[in-house]
Design a protein that fits this description.
2 copies of one chain form a homodimer. Chain A has 597 residues and is an alpha+beta fold. Chain A has helices spanning 7-17, 20-23, 34-52, 56-61, 77-86, 105-118, 120-139, 142-154, 285-321, 342-374, 378-413, 425-432, 442-455, 460-479, 482-508, 513-518, 520-549, 554-571, 575-584, 586-590; strands at 65-67, 70-72, 157-162, 178-181, 187-197, 206-215, 226-231, 233-235, 241-244, 247-252, 263-268, 274-279. In chain A, 62% of the residues are buried. Chains A and B meet through helix 9, helix 10, helix 11, helix 12 and helix 13 of A and helix 10, helix 11, helix 12, helix 13 and helix 16 of B.
Chain lengths: 597, 597
Amino acid sequence: MSYKAPVKDMLFAIEHLARIDQVAQIPGFEDAGLDTAQAVLEECARFNEEVVAPLNVPGDLHPSTWKDGTVTTTAGFKDAFRQYVEGGWQGLQHPVDAGGQGLPKTIGAACVEMLNSANMSFALCPLLTDGAIEALLTAGSDALKNIYLEKLVSGQWTGTMNLTEPQAGSDLALVRTRADKQADGSYKLFGTKIFITYGEHDMAENIVHLVLARAAGAPEGVKGISLFVCPKFLVNGDGSLGARNDVHCVSIEHKLGIKASPTCVLQYGDNGGAVGYLVGEENRGLEYMFIMMNAARYAVGMEGVAIAERAYQHAVAYAKERVQSRPVDGSVAGSATIIHHPDIRRMLMTMRAYTEACRAMALTGAASFDAAHQHPDAEVRKVNQAFYEFLVPLIKGYSTEMSQEVTSLGVQVHGGMGFIEETGAAQYYRDSKILTIYEGTTAIQANDLVGRKTARDGGQVAKGVASQIEATEKALIASGSEGARSLAINLEKARKAFLDVVDFVVDTSKSAPNDVFAGSVPYLMLAGNLVAGWQMGRALLAAQELLTTGSGDKAFLEAKVTTARFYGEHILVKTSALRDEILHGGASVMALPLDSF
Amino acid sequence: MSYKAPVKDMLFAIEHLARIDQVAQIPGFEDAGLDTAQAVLEECARFNEEVVAPLNVPGDLHPSTWKDGTVTTTAGFKDAFRQYVEGGWQGLQHPVDAGGQGLPKTIGAACVEMLNSANMSFALCPLLTDGAIEALLTAGSDALKNIYLEKLVSGQWTGTMNLTEPQAGSDLALVRTRADKQADGSYKLFGTKIFITYGEHDMAENIVHLVLARAAGAPEGVKGISLFVCPKFLVNGDGSLGARNDVHCVSIEHKLGIKASPTCVLQYGDNGGAVGYLVGEENRGLEYMFIMMNAARYAVGMEGVAIAERAYQHAVAYAKERVQSRPVDGSVAGSATIIHHPDIRRMLMTMRAYTEACRAMALTGAASFDAAHQHPDAEVRKVNQAFYEFLVPLIKGYSTEMSQEVTSLGVQVHGGMGFIEETGAAQYYRDSKILTIYEGTTAIQANDLVGRKTARDGGQVAKGVASQIEATEKALIASGSEGARSLAINLEKARKAFLDVVDFVVDTSKSAPNDVFAGSVPYLMLAGNLVAGWQMGRALLAAQELLTTGSGDKAFLEAKVTTARFYGEHILVKTSALRDEILHGGASVMALPLDSF
């Protein structure tokens, strides 16, 4: 099943929701207007459709293999990655003075979606490199930047994030990898890291590991963790590769999905110590790592959108082709393609509405990221930073949870064929399952939403978002159409449910933390549902406006109105139950004694 | 991860919800009281825990293989099946005069759950044999019964259901397999059947295929389908095996889950025709097949309960062992096992509440089946038959949908380890995905619920169920406890939502079928949620009563009260959104033009 990038929907969101015209007014982004977006997206679509997407099934059937410390990726990956590098795709969002193209995230994020739709396993390698680049840009010394940055931005070398250890997953306080300082200022690393994506592979000549470890004498817990660069091959003064470093891949995992992406166990220091270089200052590693992680969390949210889109396309193609049974309304005399059946339609519309809404949320978030980072006005930066930070757990948590519902529906649309691996629908179902886990589980995102993003400021940002949503409701009502009215009603109910929960979180998180955290994931799901639905409200308004003026693609715009209304009537309505569960269900979550489980 | 059969919870449901004392008053079931249930369940638990469960992971790792028409099952399956047969388990629910034990479904269903928890792939072989037995009992001639019945009931031979063809899945009107009548009264079959579970294997000496096919000159569509027995080996007059019949397994599928269970493509008649024998009368095949299918649908619902139970046990074990992070309430000074964290608890309680509620619904349904079939009073039979038929789509549809949510949560509880196949949680996630598809997809169950079970009688049975639920609400309120009151409130809201939808279905299914069928699956989910929740209400009342009288296991009974309350506060609350979606969302399901997908 081939992949066709949804360039039209992406450009609609970039133009009307992310407002690329405003992004292009920010110094540094002057050339990044709608025309640039269109040109980049079209070229990106071509590359991913033709080069990367065809490797998705082969990657699942013939995963990366490990032998004697060497990892061989699926046939074709190395060549595709070479083309990715040659096309300059790795540097898309990175600074021009590091060899990148300096495009805004508003454009880059759409490219991330395409790459992940085409092939999530493949896309993970560049995604991790992006994280390493972010960390070096933020906290790396000039010396480190000089050695590593350009090669990472070009894609000549790739990067990894080394956080997890067997005893330290969500809880990084338990990290035990040790870093011993050497006379020359470098360190020697000793320890075991697990779940290291692309920790070893054959697609690049060097791999730059960003590693959390404890320097000698560091305090216990998260305050004693430092961040180190530890390359696979040491780098000589002239930039050429030197000796093999003492970090080795001792095995790769046998996984449910994303099988082509090697998930490595890395052993540091079994032969005298792996040479590592401190990034920034000692004991500030977690802070730097969060920078990488926030970028990665956003990207994982995009992976959710991406795999949902691919599953949707797959299901639509099957539903338009498979003939089975007569329509219940008698609209076709004999057997019809199954897309005529209401429940198939409900499933496809659900998949479509979730995907479009989460894409809209993510691209809107990308624009706020761009403003937060590069806008000349400090107040604008601040407002956008707060909004973006509020969105990150929603983009990560909600978009990935929804992707599992969507890929499950995708299998279901295929009926018995969906269960047969050759059909391809099952791969999305398997691949998507990692998304609610890595880069912080949904519960970790929800803790972030409850603690840092809601309780800490007394719900101020959350209520600000609600006010903006209320304005959209009013605009919908004022627009006068039946679809807009329906969506406004459902948005209003959802917003009120959200405000009830925000008050509850703010009032209760100190006095009854168990009650609040028992509802943290439902709160995340409510907030994500609402904010994504709000973007559908904005999309509906924009589409109606264009229809009125007669500009744009009529069928596309009418479909947007219909899809937005569907989102309200079938997805936003879930929020009331989440509110009830959060406000009234806390006690029963924790009531069962441990021995009774 | 070992499996421990939840005998205590099963016996609680059998005693207090299914009311085995009443079942044991039905002629033929006099010996099938609580003591018998307990003895059978304990022996069944031992067998499944020790013999069948240890083969679950090996079956996933080393699925059945096909070579030159022969299927070899996973090492150990053949021996375990021999023990299954020797233990008399195949005949548990079948008539004594066919060599069975004649136990009620109220007991047999619990045994079906255990077998499926232990090993769903293994359990499918006996499940299909049960279907073949049912069909022969219902419609087979004495001659056919004499030849096949005892050998199927003993488990010496196994059975299959042959419905699906490449072009005929949910839509059996499209069946093309041909049956040519021979001079001796037998038929010769020609055609291709796909998705035939255990269509070929090495665990029994003969395989008895029940096959849908068209006799020459039969009408088109479903009214021209007949049912045939077609054995792998023809049977001589003395019961010994004769010539190999012309039905051959030409391949098996590569599937997402239940990998040990061979899913066969069977080719009939490539060498002159497969000898088949008509079951009952020509052109009544679909009617007979529905008998098998209704039994099978119930059993698939039980598979949902079974795999949810196994996933729950797996997740609890991990949550009690894995140490990570400090509890948010400060109840433990350092890092704690993750079962201390509210979101892990929420997930485990969700898994538990779904599983117990669906088990209770299924066992209650089993008791009504027993009364419907064997009660001496015709009126009692009729009432129970109607109730049972209303329940079947809920047991099949709701329990399997919930099992996918539960197994997904099971992976999530394990965090990153859940994605690693060796952990075992992913297998349940993969295995469960077939349950909403085979024996009729959830949409097919929902069509049945809307059409035959609700609209046809003007909602009479549905409203009768609602009245019974209302009585339970009153009893809960009257009991005076806080937990009971909370559950009563949530039951009432859910019941009212259900009644709104029943009225809508009855009023609208003729005039606007698309609107009703657009909400058919949400209606099924609403009804299943409510009826399962109702059983939790009955369970809560029984548990409270026992706690008051001081009899029974206090910790178990208190856990039941807590779990029931949780079900109300976290699961029943979903019903309002389903109602809103059904009543107000029909139009947007079908509004998008086909070209816009």
